[in-house]
Amino acid sequence: MWQTNAVAVRAGGEAMLVDSPYFPDELEALPGLLAGAGFEPDALLATHGDFDHLLGRLAFPGLALGLGEPTVERFHREPGAAQRELRDHDGKFYVERPSPLALGQVQGLPVPGSVELGSEELELHPADGHTSDGLAVMARWCGVLCVGDYLSRVEIPMIHPNGSLADYRSTLARLVPLVEAADTIVPGHGAPNDRETALRLLDEDVDYLDALDRGEEKPALPKGRDDLEQRDIHARNLRVLG
Ligand SMILES: [Zn+2]
Hints:
By secondary structure, this protein is an alpha/beta fold.
């Protein structure tokens, strides 16, 4: 659903799973699929607190979930919200799960900051604006940058009611040098992009935010992202900012 991505990275015999797929059959297949490719995650990490990024524990119930401290704070402000939204979406798509989502053991991580992974380290950079929380994960040694819900080929910038347009802009500016230092940029939704494509999406997103800021009802949406669903997201963005 929504072309949701999960990313596994490994270094020195340790592996980390960033974000998660959504459907129960994907979650069930994930451990075997990763093991077949030589990845056995030791820990889970979520880029932000939206329910579609938190389902890693349904595939790996024994693992701790790492969250940026802003995400932990968000969960304290909105207790049970992620579980509720998951239930609502599951209901809408007739999805049945063997067990409900329990976040289990959560580890709050300072952002900016870093986490050790085997012989290397994952950098955690602030990426708020889409929501009140959010981090981008840079695996510099292998050129992979996981940005969460930014820089998507299939989705225009989306401002959640707890997000902020100004913070969204700051995050895009912060992402520029990270994208320039990466080879593969993986968004939360849609195909991974090379550096050049991600920088183009970033420019398009800045232009879109300008139009949103001006309150334009019918702005030109970026090529490939101009459809009914994206128009709907734009209308919601206008309501959030209104
Ligand atoms: Zn998402």
